[in-house]
């Protein structure tokens, strides 16, 4: 008796877990949703806050100018979000990502599918909890301005912030889901390389196994490139936003009348959770893409043909020389070195700004 067939199972597995229903994720609904939550809503907030920011300009001291720069950075980040959705998010790359992941057949391994679903639930639960807390903090922050700005204006700002948070949740979750699929793809390839390395020497009289793995690795690398082009601008803006906000907040702590307010501390904690989760997923793609190098090197000792040596050498060179992963503005690959460099640069800027402004 034949087992029941499933309609288009690869896409079904890959398209699950994106908050929006899977039948809409490849259509125009995704773009429309992001245009409203990440473009229109921030544009409304820019219109509201820019009036107050530029009306109050007129500072002369270094400290007062620094205090004015803070809301300006806020408006610049909001403006960049609008441009990212309008010009930096191309859904066609997501369709190409889906089409190149399909040949890897990660959906036919029940253990892999189970791990994908567990990781998706874990990421979504962490993101949802942190964004709910962030929304509550935003409401608490805006509420005291009810008398100054008016009830209607504050209510609109709160609703606007909720939509922005929901759109950001969708984007963060999309990046994590894409990374989880890529993790599964590279893990499958690495497991097959390890299994090939452990096989007895008699099986190494054909290069079909190695060539098949090379083809799968090529599909995984190409999928990563399409995914990187899809979310490149968002990832770049994410790191700019995180480090610029936290540099400003930490520098303020060096001021003569500085005090640590719980709402700002909680906001930094929420953003740091997002940073850790997103960075872990992004860096893991880069690490997993080279994890099979040692097994390929050990495999070379068991090969008994010049053709097999050649196939294995090509595979080793491809894996060693390809810098696979997501990038910061297509300039730096997001790996362990990138995170260290960003942290060092941020610390240097904090010390320099604090010394210049307050001393």
Automatic annotation (TrEMBL):
Membrane-crossing residue ranges in chain numbering: 32-51, 71-89, 122-142, 162-186, 230-251, 263-283, 338-358
Out of the domains of life, which is the source? Answer: Eukaryota
Q: Which UniProt keywords apply?
A: Membrane, Transmembrane, Transmembrane helix
Positions in coiled-coil regions? none
Name of the featured protein = Gustatory receptor
